[in-house]
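// run 5 | inverse folding | seed 20
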């Protein structure tokens, strides 16, 4: 058992890289007599089928922050962190039924574009700048940092060089091909992601059981660390501040999920590129089912690593490799890279390819959406309103390259943070409550006015920061901060709207009809199946 890569690991990984680059560049090529236009580059010509949408949603979502960060949180606090994944499945159903019909009917390229149609150009610009800052300085930078950490741990390559390598890999096909290259390579990335993740889960559980198999390993993990299998944490738990008990189900996590899956450009963009609304909803349903199994791939290995590290007999059997980069409570994010060291030759390459797939697919998605927002909502709005398709596509590529360069510079500065998944959620949570409040009221409350929405979005930031830094114990869990910020922002918007419109409907209000929200029998049956499975899972692990 060795910590390093051997020849077959390199062969597998290089084959994966060639496959992804080859497919990405092939689907990116200009068809005979047709030059890429904005719809081709930013919305994949609105031609994505449901299975490409579903898999691309998961590939965009599952990144280093899940493989590394969520496994680290599994090591530190247990299965409770899986609430993000399982509640996301239910959130996807809500998005598919109530948000997508409106977005697709409006023919949107970007989420800020909806804000312009419902409210104003000024509010669109404010939110576009919010998103650009968030994507570059939090999302892109943290994914690069975590990916660099993994490569440094597994292969011994200096983190800076690892970060640059990941950035160049993602840029190689996504900058040229746009959303088509991102979405179609995501289909392949998900295969590597799930299979490679399951290989690591199998190894961890089989090692815990002493070679007696996965089921025996899972039983031993549950028996050895029962405290790691409670979805609802007690107030006495040290991690209650991150996952505050029952409030995870009825409080702030809904803010995080509805914002992320409903109004986050790099997620929702692939649903806007669907052939039709029904095709998009089928893709959402596939993604919801995939979310149910993701904790097996990203959380269970972290819990298994916790059991391994705390069992002297298992550690003795791991030899010298087992003593390299051992995860601890203070450095929980080392759990997943540490496990990869023990995979057999060849499978180590597969598992590493899965990790790379998760990182690169998310980077590519974020880059494409960052360039879409900058190009469509800022460049074409303020710099060159008459830009032709060639100019628009080129600006998209250049802006993505600049965003990536900034993120590469920022990423190493994130060194030293623990449980990076929680870090990302916490700091996204400063921005997301205000955005969610604006969208929910803008979609479903006809009295919402533009001025009220602008003031709500602006004031939500100081409210969130005040709740974050005020020494008030009840506000300490950041999920509470998100929930309270959302409610206060909605209250501000409602009061100001009523003062301005004197109770009348806003002229730009969206007309809503029952017909708009009708869904197919397949979507309805699938949705009920997801809810039943969730009920069973929470009953088992309450």
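// decoded
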């Amino acid at each position: 058992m060795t910590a390093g890569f051997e020849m077959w690991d390199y062969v597998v990984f290089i084959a994966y890289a060639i496959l992804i680059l080859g497919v990405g560049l092939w689907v990116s090529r200009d068809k005979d007599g047709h030059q890429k236009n904005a719809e081709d580059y930013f919305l994949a010509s609105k031609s994505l089928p449901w299975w490409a949408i579903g898999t691309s949603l998961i590939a965009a979502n599952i990144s280093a922050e899940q493989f590394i960060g969520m496994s680290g949180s599994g090591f530190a606090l247990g299965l409770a962190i899986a609430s993000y994944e399982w509640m996301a499945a239910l959130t996807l159903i809500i998005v598919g039924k109530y948000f997508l019909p409106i977005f697709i009917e409006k023919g949107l390229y970007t989420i800020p574009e909806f804000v312009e149609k419902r409210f104003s150009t000024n509010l669109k610009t404010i939110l576009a700048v919010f998103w650009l800052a968030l994507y570059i300085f939090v999302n892109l930078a943290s994914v690069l940092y975590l990916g660099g950490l993994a490569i440094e741990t597994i292969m011994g390559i200096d983190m800076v060089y690892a970060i640059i390598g990941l950035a160049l890999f993602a840029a190689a096909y996504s900058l040229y091909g746009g959303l088509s290259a991102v979405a179609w390579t995501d289909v392949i990335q998900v295969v590597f992601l799930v299979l490679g993740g399951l290989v690591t889960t199998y190894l961890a559980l089989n090692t815990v059981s002493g070679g007696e198999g996965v089921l025996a390993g899972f039983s031993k993990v549950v028996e050895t660390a029962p405290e790691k299998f409670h979805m609802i944490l007690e107030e006495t738990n040290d991690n209650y501040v991150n996952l505050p008990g029952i409030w995870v189900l009825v409080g702030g996590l809904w803010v995080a999920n509805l914002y992320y899956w409903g109004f986050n450009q790099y997620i929702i963009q692939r649903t806007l590129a669907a052939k039709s609304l029904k095709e998009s909803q089928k893709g959402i349903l596939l993604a919801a089912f995939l979310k149910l199994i993701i904790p097996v791939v990203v959380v269970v290995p972290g819990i298994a690593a916790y059991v391994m590290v705390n069992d002297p007999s298992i550690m003795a059997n791991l030899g010298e490799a087992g003593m390299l980069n051992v995860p601890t409570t203070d450095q929980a994010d080392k759990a997943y890279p540490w496990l990869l060291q023990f995979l057999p030759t060849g499978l180590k390459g597969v598992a590493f390819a899965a990790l790379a797939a998760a990182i690169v697919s998310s980077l590519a998605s974020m880059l494409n959406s960052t360039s879409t927002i900058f190009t469509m909502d800022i460049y074409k709005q303020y710099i060159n309103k008459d830009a032709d398709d060639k100019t628009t596509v080129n600006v998209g590529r250049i802006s993505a390259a600049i965003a990536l360069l900034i993120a590469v510079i920022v990423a190493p500065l994130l060194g030293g943070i623990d449980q990076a998944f929680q870090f990302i959620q916490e700091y996204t949570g400063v921005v997301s409550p205000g955005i969610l409040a604006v969208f929910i009221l803008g979609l479903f409350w006809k009295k919402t006015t533009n001025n009220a929405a602008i003031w709500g979005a602006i004031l939500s930031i100081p409210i969130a920061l005040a709740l974050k830094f005020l020494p008030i114990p009840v506000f300490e869990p950041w999920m509470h901060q998100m929930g309270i910020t959302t409610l206060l922002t909605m209250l501000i918007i409602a009061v100001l709207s009523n003062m301005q419109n004197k109770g009348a409907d806003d002229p730009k209000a969206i007309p809503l009809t029952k017909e708009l929200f009708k869904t197919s029998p397949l979507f309805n049956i699938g949705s009920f199946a997801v809810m039943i499975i969730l009920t069973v899972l929470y009953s088992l692990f309450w």
